[in-house]
Amino acid sequence: MMLKTLREETSDLHKEIESDNAAGLIMDHSITLEGYKTLLLQNFLAYRVVEDEIKPFYSEFSTDKSERLAEDLEALDVEFESALSYFKDDFRCKDKIEALGASYVLEGSAMGGMLIAKELQNCQHLNMISKHHFFNGDRKNVEGWKQFMKKVNSEEFSEDQIKKATTKAQETFRFFGKVFNYNPQFSV
Ligand code: HEM
């Protein structure tokens, strides 16, 4: 019931983020190096802030996605720490059930990442990048999602808990949407 509600109540937000996200430029292979840097930086900021909020409650669900984004950004000489201060106060998890709602979004996002990783190989403006750490296409990314589903399906939740987790999952999608509007200028 928890997963079903999370899925139903965030499916419109998922559709919105999927159509607005710069990752669409990877899907149609038109992305430029500057666009890719922006996409990586936006993702770094969103994942880092949300991961830091989940960590105190669920060490097992706290992903290392922002770490891998940091590796990609370092390889491309993009400074990524300073913009964190713009967003770090915009997202909070105050208990375990809110952290579960946020984890749903982070773990589930791995599936879109798999599709994107596949299409990255066909983006000609990025062919000088030899290794993608975040969009790496590794099946392990989906393992985290499977474990998350298993754990959530093995527990009982009250209606109130389902509601709280769902509200936080919706907020997490909106937070990602907000960070995806951040547009730094790079000199390339
Ligand atoms: C262009 C970008 C994206 C694409 C193409 C995409 C695509 C997908 C696909 C194909 C699935 C699997 C659906 C299924 O198996 O039923 C999925 C699931 C999911 N995605 Fe995305 N996605 C994108 C961006 C995102 C972002 C940015 C987030 C969150 C920040 C996100 C969160 C999720 C979640 C939570 C699920 C799990 C849904 C569920 O089964 O409960 N996605 N996505």
TrEMBL record:
- One of the Pfam families matching this protein, by short name: Heme_oxygenase
Any idea what this protein is called?
Biliverdin-producing heme oxygenase
Source organism, top-level taxon: Bacteria
Matches recorded under CDD domains:
HemeO-bac (cd19166)
Task: Give start-end ranges for the coiled-coil region(s).
Answer: none
